Structure formats: C-alpha cells, structure tokens
Amino acid sequence: MNINQEQLIIFKTVIETGSFSAAARRLGKVPSAVSMSISNLELDLNLILFERVGREPKPTVQAQQLYEKTNHLLVEINQWKQHAHALSEGLESSLDIVVVSELLHTHWINYIQAIEKEFPTLQINIFSAPQEDAMKMLMNGSVQFALMFEREMLDHRESFIELLQESLVPVLSQSHPLAQKPKVSTEDLRQERQIIVTSRDRNIKPELLFSDDYWRTDHYHLAISLIEKELGWGLLPMEFLQNTVHQLKILDIQEFTAKFDYFVDLVWSKEKALGLASQFLIRYAKEQRHTKSCAS
Questions:
Q1: DSSP class of 89
Q2: Contacts by 185-189 with C-beta closer than 8 Å and gap 24+?
Q3: Which residue has the higher pLDDT, 293 or 210?
Q4: Is the distance from CB of 86 to CB of 121 less than 8 angstroms?
Q5: Alpha helices, DSSP H, located in 49-191
Q6: What's the mean pLDDT in 16-21?
Q7: pLDDT tens digits for 59-79?
Q8: pLDDT of the residue at 48
C-alpha cells in the first residue's frame, strides 16, 4: 500500500464537491486524472469508495468513515511539514522553561500562550524549582529560560528582562498563639520555626532566613500546608494569598515594614544559542514591557 498526500486530497475533494469533474475543477486537474487517482486508491485499499451509478459517484459507507480521518491526517501532514520547515529555519526541538515555585500563580502563562500561537507544533516543557535550583538548571543547559526573582549578584553569563513585581509577606496560621498578637517582634519570629522555600541543595543557605530553627521545602504549596498546621511561619507571595482561600494571617512586625518587594525576571544564558522560539519570547517580553511602561 503506497498512499500519498495527493491521493488523499483528491479523495477529500471528491467527497466535498460531489463529483469527479467538480473536484477536477477545484484542483485544476482533468477529470480523467481524478478518476484514475480514485481508482488507484481503491486498488491500494482493496475497497470500493464510490458507487459509479447515475450521473455522479456516490460515496460508500466506507468512504464516509475514511473522510473524517482523512481530514485529520491531512492536517497532521501539513503540521509536520510546517514543523520540519521551522526546524530547518532554526526552531528548537523543544522549549524548556523553569518557573520559581513562588511564582507559579503569576501571569506567566500569557507568555506561553503567545509562543504556542506563534509555534503551534513546538513542544514546550514547564518545570518548577526553588530559586537557586532554577538558576542551576539554566546555567547547566537543562532549560533555556528561568522565570525567577531578581538576584543580589548577577551571573556574568546571564541576560534578563524584568516582567513584573511580586511581594513576599510573613504569614502564620490564624490559630497559632503568635497570631493573636497585634504586632510581633523580630525576636518573636526568631524563636518560632520558619518554613522556608529554598534549594534542594542543603549546602546552600536559604535567603530571607530569620529564625534559628527552620524547615526546608522546595515548593510553596508544601510550605502553606505546614504553616496552616501551625508547624511554623513563612514568607509567601502576597498575590497568591489574595487570590486563594486559606487560614493564614499576615503578620505585622514592629521593627520594619513586613513586605519584601522583588522584581520578577525572565532570564536566559548568554552562552547558549537562541532558536526561533527563544528569540520570539524575548522579543515578545520586551514588547509587553514597553506596552506596560507606556500605559503607566
């Protein structure tokens, strides 16, 4: 069996137009070529696709069943050709992105939607990791992009663009004894266990560490579960807290404003070649940032 795309297109067109002659006109062929193509297809399939009775061929039940699958198959063939062409022009085989755990709730999906619209056949893989691990994944080439908080020290190998701002605030279970105090001191926090989202590498000291006693986790959903069970306090994203139902209280600290504001960056490596999708994402992020700055 040796069925080609042209045969499928002719078969589809005959079904849609209702005759060999009408299909030939639409396709710019002579009717005899259409008739021969259908006959060869029937021989290859060992099926009768059209009953040649009356003035026009009538599709058989088998032809009607194959028609819908033919549509899907032709779409897949076209997508395959487009993807192969894009690969030849420099499209990545896949786009891998890591999102820092605390930022999963932000509007980063908008950027993924833009990529999918531009490159519908591209495979996109999304990972989640703590800040330090996300940077490791980026620099060792496991991913092409990282969505992460601004860094105190920039790595000379990285390039980035600011996307948005996020605030981290200290929270505690509403039923925790410390939550009953209108204001807490840094000494109060130091004596309570802190639940902190940080790297899986225990040799890396967590950032924003206040307490002498702390537990580590690599995901903020796990941190929330522990905090809600009164096992400690932690720093969580303000936007997430405002958009979810939870049993947490934002703490008011005596000595300073208990709100840590950070820029959120899209980061990539200067040392890695950028494919078409990567170039598009960077360009799109810059356009979005310019649009926001003009609007403000």
A1: T
A2: 185/253, 185/254, 185/255, 186/210, 186/253, 186/254, 186/255, 189/233, 189/251, 189/253
A3: 210
A4: yes
A5: 61-88, 109-118, 131-139, 186-191
A6: 90
A7: 999 999 999 889 888 888 887
A8: 92
Selection from 278, 252, 249, 254 nearest residue 266 by Cα? 278
CA distance 14 to 271: 54
Q: Where are the beta strands (DSSP E) in the chain?
A: 50-51, 58-59, 94-100, 123-129, 145-149, 158-173, 194-197, 214-217, 234-237, 248-250, 260-269
Among all chains, which residue has been given the structure tokens 């994944």?
137
Stretch (H or E) spanning 238: helix 238-242
Distance in angstroms (rounded) separating the CA atoms of residues 216 and 199: 8
Q: How far is CA 239 from CA 35, 59, 128, 165, 208, in A?
A: 65, 59, 18, 10, 19
Predicted confidence band of residue 296 (pLDDT cuts 50, 70, 90): low
SS3 283: helix
Across all residues in the chain, what is the average pLDDT?
Answer: 87
- Kindly tell me if the per-residue pLDDT of 137 is higher than 90: yes
Q: Contact 125/145 with Cβ under 8 angstroms?
A: no
Structure tokens at 166: 């996020």
In this predicted structure, which of 80-94, 142-156, 163-177 has the lowest mean pLDDT? 80-94
- Which neighbouring-strand residues pair with 125? 96
Rounded to a whole number of angstroms, the CA Rg of the chain reads 30
